Amino acid sequence: MAEQFPGGVLDILEAAGGRPVFEHAGRTVTGAGLLGTVRRAANGLRQHGAGPGDGVALLLGAGPEAFAAVVAAHVTGARVVGVRPGLTERQRDHLLRDVRITVTDRPGAISTAPPGGTGGRRAGRVLALDDLLSAPDDGTRPRVTARPEDVARLIHTSGSTGVPKACAQTYAAMTAGWAHRPDAWPPAVRELAGRLDRFLVSGTLASQVMMEYGLLALAAGGTLVTADPPVFPDALVRHRATACVMPVARLVKLVASVRESPADLGGLRALMVSGSPLEPGRFREAAEVLGPVVFHGYGQTETGMISMATPEDPPGSLGVPPVELEVRDASGRPVPPGTDGELFVRTPAQSCGYWREPQLTAEVFTDGWVRTRDLGRLDGSGRLWLTGRTRDVVIVNANVHYTGPVERLLAGHPSVAEAYVVAVPDDSTGEAVHAFVVPTEGHTPELAELRALAAAELGEACAPTRLTLLDEVPLTPAGKPDKRRLAAGG
């Protein structure tokens, strides 16, 4: 039987040997050096009692020691909880439930006292990362004690609807993941991997997305270079980065910045963009300014990557999904190509459910499939096109209208760069469409013109009754358009 995750990661570091795998704070770390740091971190965790099934929380940055701590926690077979910056105290308390050990490189950021000082502990034992790494290096390959059926990590959703939900992913699922296994790379990922010579990392390596692209870069023979906080485009130039991952909003700002003040980005080969739809106009603008470098990924916390578009794919598409995907109608029956429906997927590394939320798990995880609650279609070539969210609707005169088609139609208008639609109360129809748009440079969209367009193409009920112009769309902590804030008045 193959060794459980993170055995494959240890193999990558062993194979790297004296090759640089990290550049951080003016120093270079080799594969052998990083493997030694993993050994110390794993020994330190075990000295403090961490083992299979124990909850270990990580509030860490993006350096090599943080990377080693993440891998080491998995070596022990722990249930790893990544704690990202920017959470409210309530959200952080929620994440730290059932945690035995919390490791942090930010002294004072975590308290063991419960809210209100009522006794008990909420974060378990808190260990400074430096203290953890003071454990001895025994020089042997770390012993992986992970068990296939145990939960390897809890990956939390953005929390845009309140307290983040925790998606539970087993060690068996992580072992089946594609990032650290070149033999499992889909075509789009293989093309991407060849561009990750110098992958810029930032934020936290406890992030699902940042860690998996980091593993992909290492497996492809690349080097991780850190920039925190990353200021674009300067960070790309200064670190000679060939690749970076960013949300759509950051891509838009990068394009605007480079258009205004050209920068030498001749070495840039890949920008992995995800988190929200990338409008075709934005894709074409990025290609014009930055070159053919944009890879647009689609996935969910529950599933991992579902599909990825390369720079050669048609703008607006998400490429050919390398996973099992069905487009189903309202009764759950698959629909033919070209027909819109709800997307159901099965991926090798998908979550097994929501941690301690059986009712919600039953709603989303059905018969081995994950209900994405996204709407889309497959075209005749097998490419995926998203068309909206099943729960993103406006109910006009008791009829349900999805906001996705309205947003795409408005975003295609020459005066509109981005468009977002929310429902607002209406005395006559119950709800009506409120459109928030970011204008294209030099244009001012008019409500009457956008109303006429929507009414002609989608019907009067989908025509916006209100229009708000934005300089930029507000974002959630996860970097996605925050439509809740729009609906609440900004």
Question: How do the strands and helices of this protein lay out in sequence?
Answer:
Blueprint: H1 7-16, E1 20-24, E2 27-30, H2 31-47, E3 55-59, H3 64-75, E4 79-82, H4 89-95, E5 101-104, E6 125-128, H5 129-132, E7 151-156, E8 166-170, H6 171-176, H7 187-193, E9 198-201, H8 208-219, E10 223-226, H9 234-238, E11 243-247, H10 248-260, E12 270-274, H11 280-290, E13 294-300, E14 304-309, E15 324-328, E16 341-346, E17 353-354, H12 358-364, E18 365-366, E19 369-378, E20 384-389, E21 393-396, E22 399-402, H13 403-411, E23 416-426, E24 430-439, H14 447-458, E25 464-469, H15 483-487
Parallel strand pairs: 1-10, 3-4, 3-5, 4-7, 5-6, 9-10, 9-11, 11-12, 12-13, 24-25
Antiparallel strand pairs: 1-2, 7-8, 8-17, 13-14, 15-16, 16-19, 18-19, 19-20, 21-22, 23-24
List keywords for this structure.
single chain, 490 residues, alpha/beta, Rossmann fold, GMP Synthetase, Chain A, domain 3, 3 domains, eight-stranded mixed β-sheet, seven-stranded mixed β-sheet, 25 strands, membrane, AMP-dep_synth/lig_dom
Summarize the structure.
Residues 406-480 form the AMP-binding enzyme C-terminal domain. The chain has 490 residues and is of the alpha/beta class. 28% of the residues lie in helices and 27% in strands.
- Total strand segments: 25
CATH fold naming of the largest domain: Rossmann fold
Fourth-tier CATH superfamily name of the largest domain: ANL, N-terminal domain
Overall, the morphology is globular
Low-confidence stretches: 115-121
Distance between the termini: 54 Å
- Going by CATH, the architecture of the largest domain would be 3-Layer(aba) Sandwich
Radius of gyration: 23 Å
Q: Strand share of the residues?
A: 25-35%
Residue-averaged pLDDT: 91
Task: State the major sheet.
Answer: 8 strands, mixed
Q: What is the number of domains?
A: 3
CATH class of the largest domain: Alpha Beta
Count of helical segments? Answer: 15
Q: Strands of the largest sheet, in order across it?
A: 2-1-10-9-11-12-13-14
Structural class by sheet pairing and helices: alpha/beta
Fraction of helical residues: 25-40%
Membrane topology: Peripheral membrane protein
GO molecular function: ligase activity
Pfam families: AMP-binding, AMP-binding_C
EC number: 6.2.1.3
